[in-house]
Structures are given as C-alpha cells and as structure tokens.
Write a structure and sequence with these properties.
The protein is of the alpha/beta class and 276 residues long. It has a single domain (7-262), classed as Nitrilase/N-carbamoyl-D-aminoacid amidohydrolase (4-Layer Sandwich), CATH 3.60.110. It has six helices and 16 strands. Helix 5 (187-205) links the parallel strand 10 (178-180) and strand 11. It is globular.
Length: 276
Amino acid sequence: MTGPVSFKAACVQLRSTGDVAQNIRDTSALVREAAGQGARFIATPENTNIMAQDNRAKLAATFDEPNDPSLPAFSALAKDLKIWLLIGSLHIKVSDTRTANRSFLLAPDGTVQARYDKIHLFDVTVAQGESYRESSQVEGGQTCVLADTELGPVGMTICYDLRFPQLYRRLAQAGAFAFTIPSSFTVPTGQAHWHVLMRARAIENGAFVIAPAQGGLHDNGRKTYGHSMIVGPWGDVLAEAGSDPGVIVAEIDPALSAAARAKVPSLQHDRDFTGP
C-alpha cells in the first residue's frame, strides 16, 4: 500500500474589486490557467468574491450561502477541470449586519468537501491612518477544520490566523501535511512579516504552506501585499509571486512532510507545563 503521490499545487493571486461578477470571471480565468499548467490543487486568496468600498456596500453585494452566486460558479469550475479548488474566502451573509469570512474546499466532482470560518479577526492599527476592525463586520468562527482529500489531510486557515501558531500545531498533530493560508495582507505587515511567518509555520510543523494572496491597489483604495507563496516543510520557498494578479505553481510531495517530521520530530515532543 502506498501513500499520497506528488502533485502540482497552484496559488491564484488576485486584485479583487467590488464587482462580484467580475471577480468570478477574473478568478475563473486564472484558475483555468493554473489547471492548464497541470495543477491538481488550486487555491485563491481571502476575499475572492469581493473587496468592497465599505461594509454597507459589502452587505449589499453579498448573500447567504444558498443564494451566493460565486459558490455554484466555482463548484462548476472545479467539476469541469476535475481539480481540488480552495476558494480562499467568500463573504457570506449570516445576518443583516454581518458576514462570515468563509473558506471553501471544493472536490473534483464540484461538491463542498469542507468549510472553514476565519477564527482570528483582524482588529489592528498597522500604521498611522491605516486601521482595520474586522470584528465589526465579520462573525468569527470557532472550529478548527482539517479537510480530508485524496492528496492527504489539509488544514484550512485564513490570513490573520497565521499569527496564532497553536492553530497550526493542532492541525499538524491531527495529521495535516499542508496548510492553506489565503490572505489579504497589508503592505506594512507584509513587508515586515509575511515571509518569515509563512516559513515559520512550515518549519515548526514540517508542513507545506499554500498561501494565495491579494496584491496591489484595489478600487476601494486598499493596498495589499501580494507575494503569494508555496513553502516546503523544510522552510524552502518553492514558488513566489510579485504584486500583480497571476499564477504560481509548485510540485508538492507529501512524503517530504513525513521526512521533515522524522528529522525533527518536534510534533511528538510537546509537553504540558505549568506557570507562569
């Protein structure tokens, strides 16, 4: 009996707008480009369906899950291309005033294999005049999600989750050989922390990191860092984008995760302790 085999993974980098229909078209075109390069697992960023001018505009353009127009479009795309498609996040309306920041993993038959609602919400002042209060608009999740795929178990997270290593430890110890970290990083935090945090989550857990990102100046005035990355379990950067929309592809060998964990078996060495 053999384990999971190698496969190509791709990150789709976007510059989403307030136009949901246009975002669906732009995303679909790049997903098709990635599939054309042989990718079997393709991931899109956080905020795939919308980067709105403000919360009012976002609520006006979003729907509850049964009525969301982007999810069936992407489900049909996954089925057509026969790929695993991670839609990094869609804003899904959960009340008159709030949305969920929800990631969807679509199987090659188009069905939803797993859903994950972002747990850690971005309430941060990153620079003078640049602050975010995601919790004022978004209902935070409460459940850690490990998705079962024929490629191996994948841990689903979103953006600011990256700064909470205990989440990744839990996923790794549950069997995840790879983490998805779809993001819309700010430019100041991206320049300072993006690369080191992505590599740290990979190294400390012996796992692949698949991190598609938003990049560039959006029509709502927000600037995002880009630099979508695929990182190996030894911390090596396998592929990296710049700031513009596009596709990056890398070979993923799940056996390398097992090898990294055998060399440094830290997942087996966690100990309970007391204090302070």
